[in-house]
Amino acid sequence: MKPSTAGLALFAALLLLALASGSPRPAESGSISPSALRFDGARALAEVDAFLLAAGGPRPAGSEANARGRAHLAGRLRRFGAVEEQAFEFRIPEGSLVLRSPWWRDRVRAGEVLSFANLFLDLPGEAPEAILLACHHDSVPLAPGAEDNASAVGVLLELASALEGRRLARTVRLAFFDGEELGLVGSRRYAAELGADRRERIVAAIALEMVGWREGAPTLHFFRSRLYEGTDVPSADLLQRILDAAARGGSRLAVGDPFPGMSILYQSILRIARPPLGSDEGSFAEVGVPAALLAASSFTRFYPDYHRETDAIDRLDPRTLARSGRALEAAVLELARAPRPSPAGEIDLLVRSRRMREPWLRALAAVAGATLGAAALERRLGRATRATALLAAVALLAGALLPGGFDLPLVTAAAPAALVASVALGRRAFVRGLLAAVALLPSLALLGLLLGMDRAYRGAVDFDPSALPIGLALSAVLLATMSAGGGRIRSAA
Ligand SMILES: [Zn+2]
Prior knowledge:
The chain is an alpha/beta fold and 493 residues long. The chain has two domains: 3-21 and 358-488, no CATH class; 31-335, Aminopeptidase (3-Layer(aba) Sandwich), CATH 3.40.630.10. It is built from 15 helices and eight strands. It has helices spanning 3-22, 41-55, 64-77, 146-163, 185-193, 195-201, 236-248, 262-273, 281-285, 318-335, 359-376, 383-401, 407-425, 429-456, 468-485; strands at 83-91, 113-123, 127-136, 170-177, 202-209, 219-221, 254-255, 291-295. An eight-stranded mixed β-sheet has the order 1-2-4-3-5-8-6-7, sandwiched between helices. Helix 13 packs antiparallel against helix 14 (429-456). It starts with a helix and ends in an 8-residue tail after the last helix. The site of zinc ion has 6 residues, from helix 4.
């Protein structure tokens, strides 16, 4: 096989894989449609505005502004039913991550006791089983917290209005937690005091975090975070159902990152690095409840005013609030009637990649692997290039053949595979260099992201020792290929 053919076949295969992993499943039958949804972005924005005005400033746990915001919130919730309050005190533990964070350092001490209060409202359904929708009503001390997280408070208030009068097969429980910014304090306390019985009744928990800024794109997340214990894998079933319902409702969500092709890479990076990211969904994942996070931020589109004084109402947009809220409304309607999602603990590492186990996708991966294998036998390619091709071929074939093991090989093989293809495709050194640089981008992005996160979190990024050497080894091979193999191609035709 000619190298150019091999390269083209490989690119085609990878492109198809990327497209297949990024597009939603075809719509299923059901009553969820854009016209059936009632959520309104402008009304949600008005709720955010009123909440911020009532609080009158940043709302850290235990502050007067926090209490004022909470009183206003309780008043708004009482329109829909009885409001439950869970008030408690909590001592900031020695060694808490927040003590090292730039937002709390010098503002809170280890051993300090603060008051917290969570608020709850039930929209009763026919069954005692519940879907829990959560947000936090507190903020960090310096930020007005319009996006983080008054936006989610407004979305849940407007959602209560949108769901009013609907027949729900399951109860929808709205939870407004305190002290998220101090380490998920409110949701942790609630989850711990639930007891096996009431915990069993929660079929799914969805937390909302920063859901309304102007340039934001609603995205589903599940972090393998060092903030939580025992939550290595998401409930892929829950995430898939939310995605499908949101798409049917006309508010398509991305998983992990909205940037084309970034989803798989992003999810892998987060699982490898286990940065202390995430929100109240983690408190439920920890106790075995299928959980997910809806946010309009991700790495390629992160809210620039996060935890700053500029996190004010003028940064929000009713259109983003509507996209988040309508996706959530569709998800709730789906989850209120569908079978229970299976809990965390599935073998799926990455949600979207589960569909790669479909036979035709496996076949595609096998073809891509075989094509690279053929490239490895191509004598006109440099030795190092052929070695890279062989490695990538083995990774792709292993991914195609091993049960449940497609995702990580794809990610680790993508960059070297693209490099081999670039070498095969490019005739001029300049073109080869350009293509190789593009092929290297994912690895460089990964490295930069890991170093950046480690600095931002002051050494708190926790690398997964099993995954990093694979990436580093492949990067080394890549560099060797660049310097040794790339220049010695005799013919690329
Ligand atoms: Zn937040």
